[in-house]
Specification:
Elements: E1 40-47, H1 53-62, E2 69-74, H2 82-86, H3 91-96, E3 97-103, H4 112-124, E4 132-136, H5 143-152, H6 154-157, E5 160-170, H7 174-178, H8 189-195, E6 199-203, H9 210-223, E7 228-231, H10 250-259, H11 262-269, H12 274-279, H13 300-313, H14 315-320, E8 323-329, E9 336-342, E10 352-356
Parallel strand pairs: 1-4, 1-5, 2-3, 2-4, 5-6, 6-7
Antiparallel strand pairs: 8-9, 9-10
Bound molecules: guanosine-5'-triphosphate.
Guanosine-5'-triphosphate binds next to helix 1, strand 8 and strand 9.
Catalytic activity: GTP + H2O = GDP + phosphate + H(+)
GO cellular component, one term: cytoplasm
Region (Disordered): 1-36
Length: 360
């Protein structure tokens, strides 16, 4: 790269092998000319609320790839620790998972310049400890500003390189999410997340019939013709399809213009600079979070009753609660419990999952 103004260039990659997915990707392919000869590849994991982003991170850190991985997690609410608690603490993950930083207080795409860049810089002070970084955005994040920070921030620019944007899509709910109201502009978060993706995981395929999946693939291609679309259940995907892709370059931003709708398109085509990217940042201000804390261990029967009433008997909640998750300390139990619920248009089964969590 000649100067700070230039867009970083990616080196053309050899074709991705069709192996069994457990081989370590070839990191030599990730080197950008003229910058740090060994930048740390960053994979940005995005996707609407409850699509399966944490499930994907668990799949990656439990995989046999030989990478040491650092993770940045972003909570939409102020409550730290839930995302981390939902991550596997399996033995196989212990080697891979080197560092976790959690960002609370909103969405990293809204505070790119402060929280996100700062967290990444802090992480980079220990860069000898890991080979690769995963960043999980909130379900309402626009990946654009986060991705852009990786190559427009002077401090970070040479030390890291964006390897790929991976968007997890909930096959059961994506049609509803794509139809959701836009932010202040013409596209909503679900559309943005697909438009920016290098790889789209069409997840939760166990919940949808084949013909619907085919239609969804066509719809996703219509939003982003350049993305690889991979069907998954529980985000189970060969890791060489995700890591070591080195697929980010300036043409990605131009390709985005085709994916976004007319009004956003003119902005996207010039989106090589920060100002343009900020203009793409359209957020749904109607969505917020509520965090509840119990000072004492909870009575599980009462919690279940409260949740049933809230989710099934309150008309407004049926429509308006997109996602619930939490970690519960339960009376009479020495194990922590995980609470998971994802809004479904036509739930096939109870939306609530409560499971014993292995960790104390
Ligand atoms: N049936 C089914 N459930 C899945 C699949 N993948 C994930 N889930 C479940 O979907 C719920 C949400 O998964 P998460 O991985 O927490 O989703 P997320 O995108 O990280 O959620 P947020 O961070 O809250 O946006 C959990 O209960 C998962 O167990 C799948 O392929 N099929």
């Amino acid at each position: 790269m000649e100067s700070d103004e230039d867009v970083p260039e990616a080196v053309p990659l050899p074709p991705i092998s069709e192996g069994n997915g457990t081989e370590a990707p070839d990191r030599s392919a990730l080197v950008s000319p003229g910058t740090d000869p060994n930048p740390v590849p960053v994979t940005l994991i995005t996707g609407f609320l409850g699509a399966g982003k944490t499930t994907l991170i668990n799949h990656i850190i439990c995989g046999e790839h030989g990478f040491r991985i650092a993770v940045i997690l972003n909570e939409f609410g102020e409550e730290l620790g839930i995302e981390k608690a939902l991550m596997q603490e399996q033995e196989s993950a212990a080697f891979a998972l080197q560092d976790v930083i959690e960002l609370a207080n909103g969405c990293m795409c809204c505070s790119v310049k402060t929280d996100f860049v700062q967290a990444l810089e802090t992480m980079m002070q220990h860069r000898s400890k890991f080979d690769s970084i995963l960043i999980e955005t909130t379900g309402l994040a626009n990946p654009g500003p986060v991705a852009a920070a990786l190559w427009t921030d002077e401090e970070l620019e040479s030390g890291v390189c964006l390897d790929a944007i991976v968007t997890v899509v909930d096959a059961r709910n994506i049609s509803h999410q794509l139809a959701g109201r836009p932010g202040s502009g013409h596209v909503n978060e679900a559309q943005q997340q697909i438009a920016y993706a290098d790889v789209v995981l069409l997840n939760k395929i166990d919940l949808m019939p084949e013909e619907e999946l085919t239609k969804l693939e066509q719809r996703i291609s219509g939003l982003n013709a350049g993305a690889d679309i991979i069907r998954t259940q529980r985000c189970s995907v060969p890791l060489d399809k995700l890591l070591g892709r080195g697929c980010f370059n300036s043409s990605q931003w131009q390709g985005l213009g085709e994916a976004l709708d007319g009004a956003a398109q003119s902005e996207a085509q010039g989106a090589a600079g920060e100002a343009d990217i900020d203009r793409l940042h359209l957020h749904d201000s109607h969505v917020g979070t509520v965090c509840l804390q119990a000072p004492e261990p909870v009575d599980l029967t009462k919690v279940r009753y409260w949740l049933d009433t809230l989710l099934w008997e309150t008309e407004a909640a049926k429509e308006d609660i997109y996602r619930m998750k939490g970690v519960l300390t339960v009376q009479g139990s020495d194990r922590q419990h995980v609470l998971q619920a994802v809004h479904e248009v036509e739930p096939a089964q109870g939306p609530l999952v409560m499971a014993d969590h292995a960790q104390q």
